[in-house]
Structures are given as C-alpha cells and as structure tokens.
Specification:
39% of the residues lie in helices and 15% in strands. With 430 residues, the chain is an alpha/beta fold. The protein is globular, with a radius of gyration of 22 Å. The N and C termini lie far apart (49 Å). The structure holds pyridoxal-5'-phosphate and zinc ion.
Length: 430
C-alpha cells in the first residue's frame, strides 16, 4: 500500500519561524516547542471520509495528515482501538452519554505511546539515525524498544530508577539497552537532550519530538470517526508532558477545516495526579506559566514535573472553557477498580487518574449528564499491578469437594458486610 502525505515542515509555536524538516526539539531563538504544520488546503478532496474508510484499520488510514516521509511504507497495524459506550460507569457517576477510548489495548505495547513512536521512528529512519531512544516514564520505553526491534534499529532507553518492574521488563524483553537514572523524569530528560547532541541519536521525545507528538492526533481522528464523524462535547485526557490533549484538539480542528465534521465547541478536561499536577494547578490558578513540581505519585507514567507542553496545554484548556483536576493516589486506585468493575477494562494508574477525575467533573457539575463525553484510557493495568498490591489478598485454597465449596461459599457470604464496607471505603473516596 502506498501512502502519500501532505507537504509538511516544522514551525516555531512562538515566533513562527519555519525550519523545514530536520531533527530539532525546540526553536533555537525562543526555545519554544516546534509544531509540524501542513499545507492543509492541498489535502482538500484527498483527505475525505471515503478515502479514510478505504484505508487500513489502523492509524495509517490518516497518513495524509501525519508527517510520514516520502516513500516510507508503514506496515505495523497500530491504533484504531475501540471506542466503547460506558453505560455502567456512566450510571455510577451520573453520566448518560459516556464513552471510553480504550488505548489500554493499543498494538503493539498496550498504550497510546505506540501511536507516537511509529510516527517518530518513520522520521528517525529518514534522517538516517542508526540508534534511537527516549527518556521515558515507562510506556514510551516499552514502545520504542518493541518497534525498534521490529525495524532492526538499535535502541537505548533512559528511565527514572524507580520505574515499575513490569515496565522495565517490558523494555528489556525486546533486547533494548535500558539505563536507569538516579533521579526523576525531568533529570532523565535533561540528560537525554545532551545525549542527542553528543551521540547523534534519534531520541523520539527529544530531537524527534515534533514528529512524535503528531502521532497523538490519531486519537482525535479516531474518536471523531468512531462517533460517526461527529465531535464530542467533552474529552477527558490524562496529562504528562501535555502533548496528547493538545493534539486531540489539533486533530478536531483539522477535520473541521477540511469539512469532515461539523464545527462545534469541544471542551477539553485535563487529568493529573495531585502528586504531580503542574498543569492542573496552572489551569486552576489561571496562570500562563508552569510552576515545576517534584513528582510524588503512583501514577508514574504521568510524573513529569516540568512538562514541555504544559503552558500551551493550560492555555488551550481554559481557552475552550474546559478545566483540569487532580486526584490523590487513593482515588487513583479507586478509579482503576471502578473502571474494571463497571466496564471490564483494566487500566494502569494513568487510567485511574482519568476515571477518578471524570467522576469528579460530573460530581462538581463541570460536565452535564447528557453531554457526549469521551474518556481517554491510555495504558494497560497489567503494567502497574503493584499499585493494587494488598488490595486482593490471595484466598485460601479448598479441597476439590462440593461440601468444601458449600462451606466456603457460606463463609464468604457471611463475610459480606465486612467486604461491602471495605469496598465502599475504597471505591467512593472521591
Ligand atoms: C505518556 C502518557 C500520557 C500523557 O502523555 P503526554 O502527551 O505527555 O501528556 C498519558 N497516559 C499514559 C499512559 C502515558 O504513558
Ligand atoms: Zn521561535
């Protein structure tokens, strides 16, 4: 299958200077993040509902509005994850038109980072990098390792030393070189900026960041298409660096511009953990700057204390009339349990953040019950099982006899009041 892409290049968010296409993380003049801009008008008549429907059932159906180098032939079926109606969760939190965008089952490594990595690595190959890598809070590490293995490129990945064991294993298994750094993500990221220059490596979220970030637009394209080419009223999105939430909006705006969906107001709601909430604090205070924080939360995939796209994300959220909230570690665990118990979806700590924040937004009347709301679940619960340690103690085994089963069941039923108390305490700590 041939993919053709609309002409694109890098542009500075602040001063508007253009840079063509090259590995570059920020504007050398004003240090602001760079954005990929397209010749959108040339996509008119090419990027249509019909042309998209004729494409493959993965993110490459939107290749025309992704920065894909000439001649690159992506063949990894990334994305196009389910958008499911969440009636049970809705009943629990007072929502009628609630949907879950389930990137907990994204291919190949069970998080939305698979989208950004496939776009970044396409460009890494074009720029001729023989080693790629990233600074990661976990999911990015998994995805870079897996996709580099398949492309046959070397990968060197740097992570904070205290990362969850499952995310470390999920990186090493692909044969990547993993370096644990004594420090938090912001220390790791600063080190990676130096490494990218010194070693001439393609670090997906450093010198390939503008291309990487565009991959997140596919979440927005898919939401609109899966709603029957409609925009929702609200989107609730977890925030780490603040990139995903902005790119979902960018996708919606591109669809409106090209006439694929009708224009309407969409509010964006950002979700963070209280233990690392620099963007949500900025939104609440109406500040146009980010006060960096030292992360301390079980939501490690969101633990970025000085988010690169934080100022732009905070500004965008308020500009559209949205809001941001942050929740405690106890609420995060309850959020994980609530989504699992109501919808049968096991998400990681970031999804616990998003679910708990969504419940609060309805409880506080920031979202009205009948509005169409999409909750972005971005990662898989099997990677952060340590967050649930102690919540589900192993039960004792019974002998394979009906009498033993009968007795055990009675014992369990007898324990119901106590069990319910525990559940009520855990599940409604909002
Ligand atoms: C990276 C990540 C995010 C946030 O992404 P940003 O674009 O950096 O805001 C959300 N959820 C999960 C599971 C992630 O790994
Ligand atoms: Zn600039």
């Amino acid at each position: 299958m041939e993919y053709s892409c609309t002409a694109y290049e890098l542009k500075c968010n602040e001063c508007g200077k253009r840079f063509g296409n090259r590995p570059l993380s920020g504007c050398p003049d004003c240090l602001a993040p760079l954005e990929v801009v397209y010749d959108l008008d040339s996509a008119r008549g090419e990027f249509t509902r019909e042309s998209i429907a004729a494409g493959p059932a993965n993110i490459w159906r939107y290749a025309r509005l992704l920065p894909i180098p000439e001649g690159f032939q992506p063949d990894l079926p990334v994305g196009f994850t389910p958008l499911v109606r969440a009636r049970n969760l809705g009943k629990r939190i007072g929502a009628v038109n609630l949907y879950v965008k389930n990137d907990a089952v994204c291919f190949p490594t069970l998080s939305f980072k698979d989208r950004v990595v496939s776009v970044a690595l396409a460009n890494a190959q074009k720029f001729g990098f023989t080693t790629v890598g990233c600074s990661s809070t976990g999911n990015l590490a998994n995805s870079v390792a897996a996709q580099a293995a398949r492309l046959g490129i070397k990968a060197c990945i740097l992570v904070p030393a205290d990362l969850e064991p499952a995310k470390i294993l999920n990186t090493l298994v692909y044969g990547a070189r993993l370096i644990r750094v004594d420090g938090n993500y912001d220390h790791v990221n600063r080190l990676c900026t130096l490494i990218a220059d010194e070693y001439n490596w393609g670090l997906v979220n450093v010198n390939l960041r503008p291309y990487y970030a565009e991959g997140s637009k596919t979440v927005g394209f898919e939401i609109a298409e899966q709603l029957g080419w409609r925009l929702p009223d609200n989107v609730v999105v977890p925030m780490a660096g603040g990139s995903l939430i902005r790119k979902i909006r960018k996708a919606f705006r591109e669809l409106v511009y090209l006439g694929l969906v009708e224009d309407k107001p969409v509010k964006f709601f950002g979700a963070q953990a209280t233990g690392c909430s620099p963007i949500s604090v900025a939104v609440k205070n109406g500040a146009d700057f980010i006060e960096p924080q030292r992360p301390n939360t079980i939501a490690r995939s969101l633990a970025i204390g000085n988010p690169a796209d934080g100022p732009a994300a905070a500004k965008m959220i308020r500009g559209d009339g949205g809001w941001a909230e942050d929740v405690s570690d106890v609420e995060i665990v309850s959020g994980i349990q609530e989504l699992a118990e109501t919808e049968g979806i096991f998400t990681e700590t970031a999804g616990g953040v998003t679910t708990a924040v969504t419940a609060r937004l309805y409880a506080h009347g920031r979202i009205r019950p009948d509005e169409t709301t999409v909750v972005c679940i971005t990662g898989n619960g099997l990677k952060t099982t340590d967050a649930l340690a102690g919540h589900y103690p192993a039960s004792r085994a019974i002998r394979p006899r009906l009498a033993d089963f009968d007795a055990y069941l009675k014992e369990l039923d007898g324990a119901v009041p106590e069990l319910e108390l525990a559940l009520a305490g855990g599940a409604h700590a909002l």
